[in-house]
C-alpha cells in the first residue's frame, strides 16, 4: 500500500542536496508529488510531498535523517481539496515598520489562510523610503471575495496598492 508523507528539510545550502534526496527517494521506489525549494541567506528550505510504500517509508525517513547538517521533519498531509477558493493578491506599498504585521492581521480578521508569500524590499530613486512588493497566494473562506480582500488591504494605514489576479 502506498502512503504519503510531507518532508520538511532545512539546512545550509549546498550543491547536490536535491540530487541526493531524489536518489534516496528513487532507491525506495518513491515519487515526489510536489516539491518546493527556497534559498535565503545561504540556507535552504525544502518541502517534499513523497508517495512511497508503507514498508519503505521508515527506511527512507531514516536515510533522510542521517544526512549531515540537514534538519528533517515528517508529517501526514491534510486533505485540502475543494475547501476554499484560491486567489493571488499583489501588493505595492511604501515600506514601513509593521506593514507585514498589518497585512497579515487584516487577512487573519477575514479568516484567510496565506498559502504562499514572497516579499521584496527595494529602493526607489524618486522616493524617500523603500518600497515593499509582495505576492500572496490566499485561500479564501466562503463569502470572502478577492475584491473585498483588496479593499481591506488598501484601507490599511500608508499608501498600499493591492490587486487581485
TrEMBL record:
SUPFAM superfamilies from the UniProt entry: ACT-like
Q: Which residues form the ACT domain?
A: 88-165
InterPro entries membership: ACT-like_dom_sf, ACT_dom, UPF0237/GcvR_regulator
Domain of life per record: Bacteria
Question: What Pfam families does the record point to?
Answer: ACT, ACT_6
Which PANTHER family does UniProt cross-reference here? Answer: UPF0237 PROTEIN MJ1558 (PTHR34875)
What is the official name of this protein in its record? ACT domain-containing protein
Tell me the organism's taxonomic lineage: Bacteria, Pseudomonadati, Pseudomonadota, Gammaproteobacteria, Alteromonadales
